[in-house]
Design a protein that fits this description.
This protein is α/β, with parallel strands linked by helices. The protein has one domain (2-152): 3-Layer(aba) Sandwich (Alpha/beta knot). It has helices at residues 14-27, 49-65, 85-97, 115-120, 134-152; strands at residues 2-8, 32-38, 72-82, 102-107, 123-126. A five-stranded parallel β-sheet has the order 2-1-4-3-5. Helix 3 (85-97) links the parallel strand 3 and strand 4 (102-107). Helix 3 (85-97) packs across helix 5 (134-152). The longest helix has 19 residues, at 134-152. The two termini are 25 Å apart. It is found in: Cytoplasm. Pfam families: SPOUT_MTase (PF02590). This is Ribosomal RNA large subunit methyltransferase H. It catalyses: pseudouridine(1915) in 23S rRNA + S-adenosyl-L-methionine = N(3)-methylpseudouridine(1915) in 23S rRNA + S-adenosyl-L-homocysteine + H(+).
């Protein structure tokens, strides 16, 4: 299985990079996982609705450009479906069983995900009704993907 995390913006924080590297190493036993960073747009504080839509549109084009047509797309959205770790594991297992060997998780920029990316999404997933920094979500997502593989394989994991 090939899993991509398509994320808007560059990661600068060393501690987050270390966490990501640790989970990428752990995941290498289960799947090929790569992180694709697409450039973010400048988003000053006092933007109009039209300016915000334009930022999301440009970032959305970059996200869509990183996806192949046969990829199963899971967007991380605050209003998406909430799953338990076991349900996410079952979803990953189901995708593998039915030949969906390419999965991409999408982490939008600071303003969220464009409508065109939402339309391309096969599953909108929410980790919480709370807002998290999109950089931190990379680590949280990788941990949950790792946990999903452990659950599917019947291996022990922290409950």
């Amino acid at each position: 299985m090939k899993i991509s995390i398509v994320a808007v913006g560059k990661l600068k924080e060393k501690y987050l990079k270390q966490g990501i590297q640790e989970y990428l190493k752990r995941l290498s036993a289960y799947a090929k996982v790569d992180i694709i960073e697409v450039a973010d747009e400048k988003a000053p504080e006092n933007m109009s609705e039209a300016e915000m839509a334009e930022v999301k549109r440009k970032e959305g084009e970059r996200i869509l450009g990183a996806l192949s047509p046969d990829t199963y797309v899971i967007t991380l959205e605050i209003n998406g479906k909430m799953l338990t770790s076991e349900q996410l594991a079952a979803k990953v297992d189901e995708l593998a069983t039915y030949g969906k060997s390419k999965i991409a998780f999408i982490i939008g920029g600071s303003l969220g995900i464009s409508e065109t990316v939402q339309k391309r999404s096969d599953l909108a997933l929410s980790f919480s009704k709370m807002t998290f920094p999109h950089q931190l979500m990379r680590v949280v997502l990788l941990e949950q993907v790792y946990r999903a593989f452990r659950i599917v394989r019947g291996e022990p994991y922290h409950k």
